[in-house]
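On clarity, I found the account of how folds are encoded harder to follow than it need be. An entry of this sort, consisting of the sequence and the corresponding backbone structure tokens, reads as follows:
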Amino acid sequence: MYTNMQLGISAAICIASKILSKEEGYTKKYISMLTMGCTKKSVDLLKMCDVDLEDPDTYRKTALFFNSKIEELKKLI
């Protein structure tokens, strides 16, 4: 079971990665999700912008992101 912090970080990394890669139409999709406020469960709202916290692949991608940042940091040290 993941903690709320792990879930939030994983969601944030997925969202930020899609925005930074300029995935077509993603910003609009993300803003649409934000306008829904608390009308649904968070996990369901996030699915609206292609973030599935019920999919183990989401956490694998988060781990890969952190591993890449650790490798970048090692090169700087």
About this structure: The chain has a mean pLDDT of 92. The chain has one domain: 4-76.
